[in-house]
Design a protein that fits this description.
90 residues, alpha+beta, five-stranded mixed β-sheet, 3 helices, 24% strand
Amino acid sequence: MTAIKFSGAEQEDAYHLWRNAHPTLFVLNTYLQPKAAYLVLHSASSRCVAMQNPTRLYSKNCGTRDEIEDFVTKEFGMGTWPRSCLKCLR
């Protein structure tokens, strides 16, 4: 499987449905155009990624840790890894 990307206002509802259906998985938060300088990994059940309009401002790549690692490696190359959110992934 691959990480699922939610990006843009039209995907708000789908993103929230995915989060609610997969509380044990992860959300990679990054800019609408992903940049290695801003990659933050969150728990899908965290309030950190549950705010209103989350996909209007940021892209969300969602899935297992392995799926997110594959996305990051394909997008940015080996050796790049997101930082973990200090609020939901201690």
